[in-house]
Amino acid sequence: MDAILANLPPVTKGWCISTITTAILIALHKVKHINLLFIPHKAWSNQNWRLVTPFCTFGELSFDLVFTLWLMSSSCCKIENQFQTRYAQIPSSILDSLNGRQKRLLNKIIIRNRSLDFFYFFLQLSSSIILVATWVFYKKQILILELGAVLCQLFVYMESKMSPHEQVNFFGLFQFSNMYYPFVSALITIALHARISDMGNATGFARNGTAAGGGGGGGVGANGANGAGGEGGIGGLGYGLIGSTGILSVFRYSAVLVERLGQLFNHPLVWFYLMSFGLGHFWWCSREFLLNGLHYNDNDKARKMRKQTLKKYGVQKFDLVREILVILLLPPWYWVILSKIKQDTRQ
C-alpha cells in the first residue's frame, strides 16, 4: 500500500487516502456501506454526504481494492502530473493585452497553482458524474451506486486520449496502443460477466438488490427463452427460405434481437461505460480539441495580425464557442489574478 501512495501528486494522493480510510471504517463497522452509496432521492434531500462519499467508497479492504487503488493512482496521477491551465483558457482580449513581463508573471502563477487547478477540474468531473447519474436514475430507473468507479474509468479514458500511441502490455500476453485500453477493459469486464443479471453485482452498482437490477435479471430470463425459439426459427429458415415460414422466422429473430438490445441498454453496466466514456470524451474534447486546438492559435504574432486585419476592415467576430468554453474551464480565481496583473502594469 505504501508503494502505491509513494510519490503521488496531492489530489491523487488525497483521493487514494480517503478511499483507504473509508474502506477501513467499513471493515471496522464504524459506518455502513449502504449509507455511503449514491441514492439520488436521499442525496438531494437530507443526506447530502452521499454527494461526496460515493467517490471514495469501493467496499471493504480486499484485493479488489488494491487493484482499484493501483488503477486510480496510475490514471489520475498521469493526468495530474501533465495538467496545467493554458493560455487557450484565457480570454483572447485579456491575453493579447498582456506584455512579456505580465505573461511571465502569469506563467509563474499557473505553475504554482497546478494542483489547485487540477482539484477544480476534479470537482468539475465529479459534478458532471453526479448530474448524469441523477438523470439516469430518474429517467431510466437505474442506480449507479459507486460514482468513484465511474470517475476512475473516466480518468482511464482521458489518459488514453492524452497518450494514444503509448504501448500497453496486457499481462505479458500482447501489446496494443493505449487508445484501445478503455475499450479492451470494458470488453473483458463484459465477457467475464456474460450473464446480464450478474453484471451489476460484479462491478459495484446496484449491488444491494435494487428494483432496477432485479427487473433486469427477470427480463434476461425471459429473453433467454425467446432466444431459444429464435434459434429454432433460424434453423427452419433453411427449409422454407422463400416461403412464409422463413419470412416469419426472420421477423421473429429480429424482434428477439431488438428486445435483447433493449434489455442490454437498460442495464447498469452499460450505463456505467456510457457515462465513463461519454463524459470522458466530453471533457477531453472540450479542453484539448475544441479550446486548445480548434478555437485557439498559440502563435501570438499571427493571432494579433489577424485581429488587426479584421479590425481594419471593420469585421466584428465573436467566437461564442470559445467564450463558453473559457467560462466553463477557466478556474474562477484566474479572473481575479488577471485583473490584478493588469492593474499592476498600469502603476
Distance between the termini: 53 Å
- Radius of gyration from CA coordinates: 25 Å
Uncertain runs with pLDDT below 50, 5 residues or more? Answer: 194-242
- What is the helical fraction, as a range of percent? 55-70%
Largest sheet: 2 strands, antiparallel
The helix-strand sequence is: HHHHHHHHEEHHHHHHHH
Rough outline: globular
What can you see in these coordinates?
The protein is mostly helical and 347 residues long. The protein has a domain at 85-200 and 257-344. 69% of the residues lie in helices and 2% in strands. The chain has helices at 2-5, 10-27, 40-43, 63-82, 92-96, 100-112, 114-140, 147-162, 181-192, 196-203, 211-237, 244-264, 268-294, 300-312, 320-329, 333-346; strands at residues 167-170, 174-177. The protein has a two-stranded antiparallel ribbon. Strand 1 (167-170) and strand 2 (174-177) form a beta hairpin. The longest helix is centred in the middle third of the chain and has 27 residues, at 114-140. Residues 194-242 have low confidence and may be disordered.
Task: Describe the protein's topology.
Blueprint lengths: L1 H4 L4 H18 L12 H4 L19 H20 L9 H5 L3 H13 L1 H27 L6 H16 L4 E4 L3 E4 L3 H12 L3 H8 L7 H27 L6 H21 L3 H27 L5 H13 L7 H10 L3 H14 L1
